Amino acid sequence: MWHTYNLMQVGDSLRASTIRKVQTESSTGSVGSSRVRTTLTLCVETIDFDSQACQLRVKGTNLEENQYVKMGAYHTIELELNRKFTLAKKVWDSVVLDRIEQACDPAQKADVAAVVMQEGLANIVLVTSAMTLLRAKIEVTIPRKRKGSCTQHEKALERFYEAVMQGILRHINFDVVKCVLVGSPGFVKDQFTTYLFREAVRQDNKLLLENRPKFMTVHSSSGHKYSLKEILSDPTVTSRLSDTKAAGEVKALEDFYKMLQQEPDRAFYGLAHVEKASEALAIDILLISDQLFRHQDVATRSRYVRLVDSVRDNGGNVRVFSSLHVSGDQLNQLSGVAAILRFPIPDMSEAEDEDSSSDEE
Q1: Do 138 and 167 form a contact (C-beta atoms < 8 A)?
Q2: Is the pLDDT of residue 135 over 70?
Q3: pTM over cut 0.70
Q4: Which of 256, 265, 344, 359 is deepest in the core (most CB within 10 A)?
């Protein structure tokens, strides 16, 4: 659904099966309404994506008249999983074709699950190749240890670990997930994994015992969702997840920040600067957010597509970041486009200042 959302643009035509409420008038003049399933072709006007429910709603005007819906009438189609639809565009550019290839490649679906926790708080997150989805947030109040008695504290901790364990069993599909990362500050992660497998043995839970090698403990600074970035950039994790797209994105962004600190003349961000670097054939790795390709203005969108094509034609690597990943969110704060260069291009800003001053003269 996320890939479909990125493929679709305003002005495309979409043909799909949908349900329409139809009013009928009988010979006696009484009016009744019924819901009928029909196939409509819409000219797309607005596109809404719900990342939690993974649903896509497309609103537009009808292009082909049928017995229930007039030409030009508005309708909203809710695209459903495993139902066919036909999408027609005036132009299929390279970015859109790449997206189709990526959606059809089973290797791209190397999924990761993460449990980011601290005492009393746990977030169960699924990291797919396209997005980061929060599946469950577990909060349990844990009283402090009292002098001479820790029983209340220990009972609450056990309740918390039990809730996290149930969350893992409910939300993680071990047939798809290749690795489960458990991250926390201090010893919480170790205490939890010890509890998890002790309970699995006691309850004879074969699912957890068979998938024990998939669990991996990592340090994180807190139990909040944003700590996922530091978990994914941990060297031991990146080596284990080398085949997943999310880990590749995090590493590319880390490399960009390092370059920005060490050799600022080899790290550019902002469309104007990156385009100038592309003209000089200097771009080694282009980092670009998929949010930019959803721009409604055709001229602006084609400018980004031209940039991507130019970098590829000149032997550079292009990494399209998903805006639903933590790394994609960070890249959007840097204008959504950045580049690591093959060689330094000094004084870009000074050159721009000189240009502007000469224009003023």
Answers
A1: yes
A2: yes
A3: no
A4: 256
